[in-house]
Amino acid sequence: MAAPGSGAAPRAGMTDSPTAARVRRVGARGALYAVASFFALFAALPFAWMVLTIFKQDADLYNRRNNPFLYNKPPTWKNIDLLVNDTEYVRFVLNTLFVAVLVVAITLVAVVPAAYSLTRLAGRWGEGLGIGIFLVYLVPPTLLFIPLARVVADLGLQNSRWAMVVVYPTFTIPFCTWLLMGFFKSIPWDIEEQAMIDGYSRLGAIWRTVLPISIPGLLTVVVFTFALTMHEFVYALAFVSSSENKTISIGVTTELIRGDVFFWQSLMAAAAIVAIPVALLYNLFLDRFIAGFTLGAVKG
After folding, report:
1. Which residues lie closer than 8 Å to 68 by C-beta, 6 or more apart?
2. Which residue in 34, 76, 108, 239 is a FRET match for 195, CA 20 to 30 A apart?
3. CB-based contact 205:236 (threshold 8 Å)
4. Are residue 156 and residue 294 in the same domain, yes or no?
5. pLDDT tens for residues 218-270?
6. pTM listed for this prediction
7. Does residue 67 share a domain with residue 101?
8. Distance (Å, rounded) from C-alpha 242 to C-alpha 146?
9. Quick one: 136 and 155 in the same domain?
């Protein structure tokens, strides 16, 4: 029995009023949007910083009393002019695209049959072999570039773009094979069986059923390989020395860092010109990219 003067205890099963429930929903949604906005701004800050820095004059950039997020002096185009006309930046971009497209093609040609064979044809040994292939990807590049340099020298590819075309698949193929194995495991075997019952060969069944369903996984391989090829530094630095054969990752740093002088505005311009298209590419295929990585991680 409740003590005299005390409030009545709430009855079991009593529900909150609609107003209280609505307030909780609005609060939860507001907290979610606040957290999402914080991380979105945090992710966009490097791009904003790059764009702001590109058009700043030296007197504005290096003055600590100036607000770094405002133009305290008129913006200038001379930093982009320096990047385009005083360096081989256009050549770096073309070399990077040349290497990236070829590496993507080689990777796709290698990983699709490898991942399918390990998933469908290797039986219980397939998963173990797939993990073994993935472990190759974890070997640090600093341990491999010396023996790979011998391979490049024996092939006569020193100081050539083809050296990177030959070397880069050594780290893109292992990871992408493991990733695509997980995606192939998510595709029911019945689909291929039905296609072969309808008269297609195994190759025809793969072409007409497996590959169309695997588009998210294939796009993941393409985007991952392309981005990794563009950002790779160690092998490009070890195998290429002439400016006409350099890619962006080493060309920009060697041309715009001269002794102890850093051309920060031009460096930011070089980074932004490459980073923004890659970011747009990621966002364009974001859903399929996440699907490919998720299925690769869960099923692989």
Report:
1. 52
2. 108
3. no
4. yes
5. 888 888 888 888 888 888 888 888 888 899 888 888 888 887 788 888 988 88
6. 0.76
7. no
8. 19
9. yes
